[in-house]
């Protein structure tokens, strides 16, 4: 609570949600990370609102509490496109191939735009509005993994298509430089919602299970986080061993018993 500009990262997994709610309920600012599925996002928003309600019931100040929900974007297309490629190889007609080809690079943005609509619905609802009257801030949506991994796609694709109120976009320097050079700025997050719903329906229609895609990405993300954490622990242990090996030996004085 004494570090208003610091947000602690906690994965928004099923196992992480209780920690998210507890920390927020103690007034600690949290970046809920590793989000892919809309259903998981809804649980994250619920945890935030429940934590604010706890603070309000305790008479605590709400305006100091901040949180973001970090949605990983381009990774969804990377995995969905791999599955579409497999479906394309199995297609038997030109019409089927055309239907599948039209879906490449579309899943991630459609998913994010529909998640943003849930954000609007949740935070415009009466439950949060009662908290807003006491100074609570919305839990903003943050777009992560916004560089275009596929060189066939526009290099500012994800940065351009997810611009909107109460959002944050984190991007690598190369994507930021590209956007400064040729990015188009407008409130794109509200555009093409009917098309986004159609993309989701078409993905299911060609056999792409987006729920399975997001589950796999979450599992991969947790594994990567665990490996990085272990590397950190190993590095600390290695450094400690080096310091201890070179530290001067402390000569212990003999203990003299009083006569």
Structure explained in plain terms:
This protein is an alpha/beta fold and 259 residues long. The protein has a 5-stranded parallel β-sheet. The chain has helices at 17-25, 38-57, 74-90, 94-101, 107-123, 126-132, 157-161, 173-182, 193-205, 210-246, and strands spanning 8-11, 30-35, 67-72, 140-144, 167-169. α2 links the parallel β2 and β3. α5 (107-123) crosses α9. The relative contact order is 0.13. It has one domain: TIM Barrel, CATH 3.20.20. The protein is 55% helix and 9% strand.
Sequence-ordered SSE layout with sheet pairings:
Layout: E1 8-11, H1 17-25, E2 30-35, H2 38-57, E3 67-72, H3 74-90, H4 94-101, H5 107-123, H6 126-132, E4 140-144, H7 157-161, E5 167-169, H8 173-182, H9 193-205, H10 210-246
Parallel strand pairs: 1-2, 2-3, 3-4, 4-5
Round the Cα radius of gyration to an integer and report it: 24 Å
Contiguous runs where pLDDT drops below 50 for at least 5 residues: none
Distance between the termini: 55 Å
Q: Write down the CATH topology.
A: TIM Barrel
**What's the average pLDDT?**
93
Structural class: alpha/beta
Largest sheet: 5 strands, parallel
The level 1 CATH classification is Alpha Beta
* Helical amount: 55-70%
Lateral strand order in the biggest sheet: 1-2-3-4-5
Number of strands: 5
- The proportion of strand residues reads 5-15%
CATH H level, superfamily name = Aldolase class I
SS field, number of helical segments: 10
What is the total domain count? 1
Order of helices and strands: EHEHEHHHHEHEHHH
Shape: globular
